[in-house]
Amino acid sequence: MWRGRPNHTEESNRLEAVSPTTALRNHLLSGGRLSPVHVPDLPLAEGETAFADLVATTARFYGTEPAFPPDRPAGYYEDHPAFGRRWVPNPRLDARRRREAEAAASPRWRDFTPARVVLTSMGLRIRPAYAPETWLPFDHCLLTQVVVEPHETVLSYSVCAPLLLAGPTASWLGIVTEHIWHAAA
User: Fold this and answer.
1) Is the pTM value of this prediction over 0.90?
2) CATH number of the domain bearing residue 168
3) What does residue 119 show for φ and ψ, rounded to 5 degrees?
4) Backbone phi, then psi, for 142, in 5-degree steps?
5) Which domain holds residue 143?
6) How far, in Å, CA of 42 to CA of 127, rounded?
7) Mind listing the pLDDT tens digit of every residue in the chain (185 residues)?
8) CA nearest 54: which of 174, 157, 161, 180?
9) Total domains present in the chain
10) Staple partner for 126: which of 92, 136, 148, 160, CB 3.0–4.6 Å?
């Protein structure tokens, strides 16, 4: 339905609106502080402070060795009237299986799982849903790059595969992680 020409106050309000992530970034850049939170089941190191206890989807970016089919070529048995029963190779099927194995092994985001993510002054502590008693440490001192997108954050580390945080809390985690990382440097 045509509403006519929008009024100028509506346009200016739309232009002046600030996204929550931009507001958070501006707050931190202007000297704003984060409030500590209590995480009872996470043992913190001496001087380590927890700032957030959230849930996000996590994944890792890596490739694997291709798992090729067995050395026996693909094919089928044929009952030939003159030659009897014999194996007939199928090189097209072999090539397709090899291409599929190489594609499955290529570097990509893998191991998607929901996880509890605790942001501390020293790094991220991640507890994957499949390992409820294990906290995986991702320290800020090992970070090499932080890429923040609207609903995902990619954290690159010097010693392991990149980490993807996805979901509604991911951009918040990315901005705060980047701020703590730069403040420590």
Assistant:
1) no
2) 2.30.29.30
3) -95, 125
4) -100, 0
5) 18-63+107-184
6) 10
7) 444 455 555 554 444 545 777 777 777 777 878 888 999 899 888 999 999 899 999 999 988 888 877 777 787 788 878 878 888 788 888 888 888 888 889 999 999 999 999 999 999 999 999 888 899 999 999 999 999 988 899 999 999 999 999 999 898 899 899 888 888 76
8) 174
9) 2
10) 136
